[in-house]
Amino acid sequence: MTEAQETEHGGPSVPQTRTARHR
Q1: CA 18 to CA 16: how far, in whole Å?
Q2: 17 CB-side CA count, 13 A
Q3: Per-residue pLDDT at 11
Q4: Is the CB of residue 15 less than 8 Å from the CB of residue 4?
Q5: Cβ-proximal residues to 22 (8 Å cutoff; 6+ apart), any chain
Q6: pLDDT score at 18
Q7: pLDDT value at position 7?
Q8: What pLDDT, on a 0 to 100 scale, did the predictor assign at position 21?
Q9: DSSP characters over 1-23
Q10: Residues 6+ apart with CB under 8 A from 4
Q11: Nearest by Cα to 10 from 21, 18, 1
């Protein structure tokens, strides 16, 4: 699963960090 998809799912571990990196 890619980081972008994880962000869309709300991030299983660190949604804040994933979203920050994605955007």
Answers
A1: 6
A2: 3
A3: 54
A4: no
A5: 3, 4, 7
A6: 60
A7: 55
A8: 61
A9: --HHHHHHTT-SS-HHHHHHHH-
A10: 22
A11: 18
Structure tokens at 11: 């991030």
> Please, what is the end-to-end C-alpha distance for the chain in angstroms?
17
Q: What is the CA radius of gyration of the chain?
A: 7
11: CB partners within 8 A, 6+ apart: 17, 18, 19
pLDDT in tens, 1-21: 566 555 555 556 666 666 656
Tokens representing residue 21 in the block:
């990196």
